[in-house]
Amino acid sequence: MATFELSPQLSDEYNHLFALARIRPEHRFEVDAIVDRIFGPRNIAQYQRVETSTRVPAFVVGIIHNLEASLSFEGISTTATR
Prior knowledge:
Layout: H1 8-20, H2 28-38, H3 41-54, H4 58-69
Protein backbone atom coordinates (compact mmCIF):
# COMPACT_ATOMS: atom_id res chain seq x y z
CA MET A 1 0.00 0.00 0.00
CA ALA A 2 1.37 3.38 -0.97
CA THR A 3 2.12 5.76 1.87
CA PHE A 4 3.37 9.30 2.16
CA GLU A 5 4.63 11.49 4.93
CA LEU A 6 3.46 15.02 5.61
CA SER A 7 6.02 17.68 6.27
CA PRO A 8 5.96 18.97 9.86
CA GLN A 9 4.59 22.30 8.63
CA LEU A 10 1.75 20.72 6.65
CA SER A 11 0.96 18.37 9.52
CA ASP A 12 0.73 21.34 11.89
CA GLU A 13 -1.52 23.20 9.46
CA TYR A 14 -3.88 20.21 9.09
CA ASN A 15 -4.01 19.72 12.86
CA HIS A 16 -4.78 23.41 13.34
CA LEU A 17 -7.56 23.35 10.74
CA PHE A 18 -9.05 20.19 12.25
CA ALA A 19 -9.05 21.80 15.71
CA LEU A 20 -11.08 24.71 14.29
CA ALA A 21 -13.73 22.48 12.68
CA ARG A 22 -17.18 22.68 14.25
CA ILE A 23 -20.56 21.16 13.44
CA ARG A 24 -23.02 23.97 12.88
CA PRO A 25 -25.91 23.74 15.36
CA GLU A 26 -28.52 23.52 12.60
CA HIS A 27 -26.83 20.33 11.32
CA ARG A 28 -26.25 18.62 14.69
CA PHE A 29 -29.34 16.37 14.41
CA GLU A 30 -28.38 15.22 10.89
CA VAL A 31 -24.78 14.48 11.90
CA ASP A 32 -25.89 12.59 15.01
CA ALA A 33 -28.27 10.46 12.92
CA ILE A 34 -25.49 9.55 10.47
CA VAL A 35 -23.08 8.71 13.30
CA ASP A 36 -25.73 6.45 14.86
CA ARG A 37 -26.15 4.62 11.53
CA ILE A 38 -22.41 4.25 10.95
CA PHE A 39 -21.91 2.79 14.42
CA GLY A 40 -25.04 0.63 14.31
CA PRO A 41 -24.18 -3.06 14.85
CA ARG A 42 -24.83 -4.16 11.24
CA ASN A 43 -22.91 -1.35 9.58
CA ILE A 44 -19.92 -1.13 11.91
CA ALA A 45 -19.35 -4.88 11.58
CA GLN A 46 -19.03 -4.49 7.81
CA TYR A 47 -16.80 -1.45 8.12
CA GLN A 48 -14.57 -3.32 10.57
CA ARG A 49 -14.12 -6.13 8.02
CA VAL A 50 -13.00 -3.53 5.48
CA GLU A 51 -10.67 -2.02 8.10
CA THR A 52 -9.09 -5.42 8.67
CA SER A 53 -8.23 -5.81 5.01
CA THR A 54 -7.32 -2.21 4.19
CA ARG A 55 -6.09 -0.69 7.48
CA VAL A 56 -8.46 2.24 6.87
CA PRO A 57 -10.25 2.97 10.17
CA ALA A 58 -13.82 1.63 10.24
CA PHE A 59 -15.30 5.05 10.97
CA VAL A 60 -13.53 6.49 7.90
CA VAL A 61 -14.95 3.67 5.77
CA GLY A 62 -18.38 4.57 7.17
CA ILE A 63 -17.93 8.26 6.36
CA ILE A 64 -16.90 7.45 2.79
CA HIS A 65 -19.79 4.99 2.47
CA ASN A 66 -22.17 7.74 3.59
CA LEU A 67 -20.74 10.18 1.03
CA GLU A 68 -20.76 7.68 -1.83
CA ALA A 69 -23.87 5.55 -1.15
CA SER A 70 -25.86 7.21 1.65
CA LEU A 71 -24.97 4.20 3.84
CA SER A 72 -26.88 1.88 1.51
CA PHE A 73 -25.58 -1.63 0.93
CA GLU A 74 -28.01 -2.22 -1.94
CA GLY A 75 -26.24 -3.31 -5.05
CA ILE A 76 -23.09 -4.37 -3.21
CA SER A 77 -22.15 -7.95 -3.87
CA THR A 78 -19.69 -9.73 -1.63
CA THR A 79 -19.08 -12.27 -4.40
CA ALA A 80 -18.40 -9.75 -7.17
CA THR A 81 -15.60 -10.64 -9.54
CA ARG A 82 -13.37 -8.35 -11.53
